[in-house]
């Protein structure tokens, strides 16, 4: 089987561990492994820019390793001979823009190419939020590029938007193949050989906002970063007896804010899924903080999820919270927006272990897949790596977002995690 992997949407710590794991697991199972640079955008662009520049679609293979090494399976050694990926590190040392690979987005990789990747932040194969892939023409071009390279299986690591894209792509695949065949862009034999596209999704997102999995890749590291930031801010907050309002990421999901608040001892937390019950919430927040000050607390930490809302669905903004704390409680208050410091940097241990296990299962799921089996999303439930139909997980995630938009917060939480409210 020829398997390609791409990372899509916002980068997250642990994406490189996924790529490494999928590539190595695939090679061990005798598959030919490819990476797609720059997410779906690379899939749409394919290797034609390279062809235009060099007159050839495939650079000559680099033979860099001996044919036999005692104790190593031939699949690993074979993969070492195909060193396209090595060029990712050639010349400029830039993984995503290396000189010899310019204009080449779909690249065959070997064992060596992903060595040591588990400890690197972000995604070394690049990511993008591709507008082109959202169009039918873009997806047709993506299908053509995969077929041209003979790739029959795709692993997508990204957030709910990226996995929705994967789901659409797989559903449309037969029509795309038929369209390419009828336009004579591919032969009948190619159309037959590529009648089905096997897809597996892995959830890479710091937001932990995907239903039907306990954890998304990158969320534990981001949480860790926020906790470190709170610890750092605590020094100044205590020294000056100040209040700090921290805005944290998470889009429409409050997981990062809630858990950071628990881990960092916050005084008050605003999340989208459970807005303050009392209106005006300003009274509730001030009363809680006054209580804490009365019992001797010198510092105040309020965490605001970027998607926080009040019970009337108005956004709650960090700057406004600061005004309330300053004006009503007379606290010397600062706002700190943690921004992208939450997303980058080296993955924590869990963001290396979980993606590694999930990557191995992703390859197994592809090898076991038949035209009748659904595309799976690889998740984790109660410390066990799980497979759930990708479509169901995407639909459930949308149902959660809808419940939040309709102010049915109990429903949102119970859909996201049925056991949470018990
Ligand atoms: O989905 C991940 C995330 O970091 C969100 O928490 C945040 O809202 C968004 O991406 C930021 O996106 P960008 O990096 O495009 O500004």
From TrEMBL:
EC assignment: 2.7.1.11
Record domain Phosphofructokinase: where: 2-366
InterPro entries, alphabetized: ATP_PFK, Phosphofructokinase_CS, Phosphofructokinase_dom, PKF_sf
SUPFAM superfamilies: Phosphofructokinase (SSF53784)
Pathway(s) served: Carbohydrate degradation; glycolysis; D-glyceraldehyde 3-phosphate and glycerone phosphate from D-glucose: step 3/4
Compartment list: Cytoplasm
GO cellular component terms listed in the entry, alphabetical order: 6-phosphofructokinase complex; mitochondrion
PROSITE patterns in UniProt: PHOSPHOFRUCTOKINASE
Reaction catalysed by this enzyme: beta-D-fructose 6-phosphate + ATP = beta-D-fructose 1,6-bisphosphate + ADP + H(+)
GO BP annotations, alphabetical order: canonical glycolysis; fructose 1,6-bisphosphate metabolic process; fructose 6-phosphate metabolic process
UniProt enzyme class: transferase
Pfam families, per the entry: PFK
Cofactor(s) this protein requires: Mg(2+)
The keyword Transferase is annotated on this UniProt entry: yes
Gene3D superfamilies attached to this UniProt entry: 3.40.50.450, Phosphofructokinase domain
Keywords associated with the record: Allosteric enzyme, ATP-binding, Cytoplasm, Glycolysis, Kinase, Magnesium, Metal-binding, Nucleotide-binding, Transferase
GO molecular function, a single term: AMP binding
Name of the molecule in the record: 6-phosphofructokinase
Species name: Sphagnurus paluster
């Amino acid at each position: 089987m020829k398997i390609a992997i791409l990372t899509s949407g916002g980068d997250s710590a642990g994406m490189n561990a996924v790529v490494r794991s999928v590539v190595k697991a695939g090679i061990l199972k005798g598959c030919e492994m490819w990476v797609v640079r720059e997410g779906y955008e690379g899939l749409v662009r394919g290797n034609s820019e390279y062809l235009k520049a060099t007159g050839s679609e495939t650079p000559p293979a680099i033979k860099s390793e001996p044919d036999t090494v005692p104790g190593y399976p031939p699949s690993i050694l074979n993969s070492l001979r195909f060193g396209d990926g090595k060029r990712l590190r050639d010349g400029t040392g830039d993984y995503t823009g290396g000189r010899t690979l310019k204009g080449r987005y779909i690249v065959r990789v070997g064992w060596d190419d992903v060595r040591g990747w588990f400890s690197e932040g972000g995604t070394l194969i690049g990511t993008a939020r591709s507008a082109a892939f959202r169009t039918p023409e873009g997806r047709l071009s993506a299908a053509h590029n995969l077929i041209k390279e003979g790739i029959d299986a795709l692993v997508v690591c990204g957030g709910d938007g990226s996995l929705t894209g994967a789901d659409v792509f797989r559903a449309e695949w037969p029509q795309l193949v038929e369209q390419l065949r009828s336009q004579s862009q591919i032969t009948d034999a190619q159309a037959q050989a590529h009648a089905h596209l096997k897809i597996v999704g892995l959830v890479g997102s710091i937001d932990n906002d995907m239903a039907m999995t306990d954890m998304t890749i990158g969320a534990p590291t981001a949480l860790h970063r926020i906790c470190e930031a709170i610890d750092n801010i605590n020094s100044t907050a205590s020294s000056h007896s100040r209040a700090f309002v921290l805005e944290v990421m998470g889009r429409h999901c409050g997981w990062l804010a809630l858990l950071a608040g628990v881990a960092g001892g916050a005084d008050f937390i605003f999340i989208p899924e459970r807005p303050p019950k009392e209106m005006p919430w300003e009274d509730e927040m001030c009363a809680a903080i006054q209580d804490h000050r009365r019992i001797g607390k010198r510092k105040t930490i309020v965490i605001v999820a970027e998607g926080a809302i009040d019970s009337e669905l108005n956004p709650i903004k960090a700057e406004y919270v600061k005004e309330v704390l300053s004006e009503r409680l007379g606290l010397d208050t600062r706002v700190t927006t943690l921004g992208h410091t939450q997303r980058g940097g080296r993955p924590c241990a869990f963001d290396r272990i979980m993606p590694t296990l999930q990557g191995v299962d992703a390859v197994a799921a592809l090898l076991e897949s038949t035209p009748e089996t659904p595309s799976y999303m690889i998740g984790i439930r109660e410390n066990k790596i799980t497979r759930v139909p990708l479509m169901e997980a995407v639909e459930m995630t949308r149902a959660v977002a809808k419940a939040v938009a309709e102010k049915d917060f109990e429903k949102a939480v119970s859909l996201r995690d049925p056991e949470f409210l018990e």
